[in-house]
Amino acid sequence: MLIGGGMSIRPRDDDFAISRRLYLKASHHAGYPAEKTVEIATSIAYVVSECKTNLDKTMFQGACATAHDVKAAVSGARYYLLAEWLDMTPVSTASTDIDEVLLIRKAKRTNSNIRKHYSSTEGRRRARATYREFLIKHPFRPEAFEWYVGHIRGILRNETPVESVVLNRGYF
Fold first, then answer.
1. Residue 37 domain boundaries
2. What stretch of H or E contains 10?
3. Residue 157: which region, alpha, beta or left (left: phi > 0; alpha: psi -120 to 50)?
C-alpha cells in the first residue's frame, strides 16, 4: 500500500499470524498537515505460519523469501511452514529464515501418474477407495499439531527465567 510520496507498506496475506496492531502516520511535511498526511492501521506479525497442502521446491523457495521479509521487518519474529504432503527432496533450513518446516503427515504426495486419475469426476469416483486407503495409511499426526501448539505457547510465555531453574537446566 502506497503512503504519501513513495513511502509504502507491503501487506502480507499469511495463513496464520500472531501480530500486534500498528498505527502509522506519515508525511513529508513537518506538523503533519491533513492534506499531505497519510494515516493507516496495519498489523505487525511476530509469529507467521504458512500452510501448504503440497510442499514443492518452488513453494519452499517462496516461503524462504517470505520468511526473510518477515524477519527483516520484525527482529525476533518466527516463521513456520506447515505442509500436509512433501513433494520435494528435503533440504536444510539452516541457511534460510524459516524456523521450522513441519510435516503434518509422514508421507510424500502421490505420484503424478496416480494423481492424473483425479482430474475428472469419474476418475475421482473410480480412485476413491485407493485414495481413501492412502489417507488412512498416512493420517494427520497429532504430535505434529501438539509440537506446533506447544511451541507457540512457549513463544507467548513472557516469563522471567527463575535462577534456580536456569542453573539446574544449564541454559536460558
1. 1-106
2. none
3. beta
